[in-house]
TrEMBL record:
GO BP annotation list: DNA-templated transcription initiation
Keyword Lipoprotein belongs to the record: no
Domain (RNA polymerase sigma-70 region): residue spans on this chain: 24-92, 138-180
Any Pfam family matching the protein: Sigma70_r2
Protein's name according to its UniProt entry: RNA polymerase sigma-70 factor (ECF subfamily)
Coiled coil: none
InterPro entries for this protein: RNA_pol_sigma-70-like (IPR039425), RNA_pol_sigma-70_dom (IPR014284), RNA_pol_sigma70_r2 (IPR007627), RNA_pol_sigma70_r4 (IPR007630), RNA_pol_sigma_r2 (IPR013325), RNA_pol_sigma_r3/r4-like (IPR013324), WH-like_DNA-bd_sf (IPR036388)
Organism: Paenibacillus cellulosilyticus
């Protein structure tokens, strides 16, 4: 049964086949945990999200449609939604009080403490990089966004995009070459 596709396993879950859920859990629990951990920075909450995601697959008979996209994208959409719900619930329960330890609060970048010059420089650079996105394909933009702005690892991206690690590295390298070339051209014009 382990060699079955994700779609076939989802059909078996609808028929209440416990082993199918177990196989999908073994395949994707680390990815779901990693995604939740990046957003929540809380091990217990991330484990709870993993449990909730797979419980949702079991209890609601969530329907994955392969013609609408990759299974990992669909699964991470469920994860993102549950993570967002968890964050909203926490916010409501704490009535907007801060619940993070002081050490974590100190690590949050405070853009308000930047000098006006530093803020201008940061915003200009960010706008310049985004302006160069016009030379990238939508897939390259997503890859750059996920890796550099959202903190995904290369192996997580390989799983997310369902591509070999070498392919992901190569595509990221090609996107960076294009960005470098166009950013250099822009700076020479200035």
């Amino acid at each position: 049964m382990r060699e079955r596709s994700d779609y076939e396993l989802m059909l078996l879950i609808k028929d209440r086949q416990h082993l199918a859920l177990s196989i999908l859990y073994d395949r994707y629990a680390p990815l779901v945990y990693s995604f939740a951990m990046k957003a929540l920075k809380d091990e217990q909450a991330s484990r709870d999200i993993v449990q909730s995601v797979f419980m949702r697959l079991w209890t609601t008979g969530s329907e994955y449609k392969p013609d609408k996209g990759r299974y990992t994208s669909w699964l991470l959409t469920i994860t993102r939604n549950l993570t967002t719900d968890w964050l909203r619930k926490q916010r409501r329960e704490t009535n907007s009080r801060l619940t993070m330890p002081w050490e974590q609060l100190q690590q949050i970048p405070d853009h308000m403490t930047l000098s006006p010059e530093d803020r201008y420089e940061r915003d200009s650079l960010h706008a310049e990089v985004r302006g160069a996105y016009q030379y990238l394909s939508s897939q390259q933009i997503m890859l750059v966004e996920h890796f550099y702005w959202q903190g995904y690892s290369l192996s997580e991206l390989a799983t997310l995009y369902d591509q070999p690690l070498g392919t992901v590295k190569n595509r990221l390298h090609q996107a960076l070459k294009i960005l470098r070339r166009h950013l250099k051209t822009e700076s020479e014009r200035s």
